[in-house]
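Q: What would this chain look like folded?
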Amino acid sequence: MKKALKTAARGTVFPYAGEKWVVLEHDPAGRTLCLRLDLIPNKPFDENNCNNFATSSSKEWMNGPYLDNLIDAVKGPNAFLQTELDLTADDGLKDYGTCTVTIFSLTVDQYRRNRDVIPNADDWWWLSTAYSTASNGYEHSARLVRIDGTLYGNNASYGVSGLRPACYLDSDLLISMDGDEQYTGIGPQEAAIIVAELVDQFGGTYATEGQFTAEVSFLLGKLRAIREKEADHE
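A: My prediction, written as structure tokens:
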């Protein structure tokens, strides 16, 4: 059964556009901030070692090829929303202003607000916040998150860290909670269908274990397909 994204609790994991996302926060404007569950490894903040996210190679990639692939994978209307990302540096300087994006790296503030529901990743990953700005002598250092969830800073061209894309989705988007569409067992109705079809198939004749197992697997596959088709129409 599908539910509106706005009803999902913070920390909920759900599939969308071929990825798994974590619900971070809902806002009054009808948007939900979400973070990709797994990181994309070995992506620098910026190939030219500049810590301004607005001009970074990571921003261009996430809002170019990566976003194109997400939209191609969407079944139904595209729920990704544009937003103005605040690029205030970690020391408070506002030289970098804001930038308009659809897919982005979390800011330090967004990360701190939602740290309690963000699972640790298996490698370091970038935030969009600069350590400070070029006018203050820091044009290369950007903030990142280490494996244990603590914050650090490094040169923007450091290619061993990864990206963990974030986005705002329309809160009215219908989603399946993680695991909802996985077939984890059968209820009385499904069991009755299987028994009836097995009786019809074999009657009083003897079936080998292999034949019986193959037929049950086939019937379970049919029931799973029916469930998924019903879920798509809910």
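The chain is about 25% helix and 25% strand.
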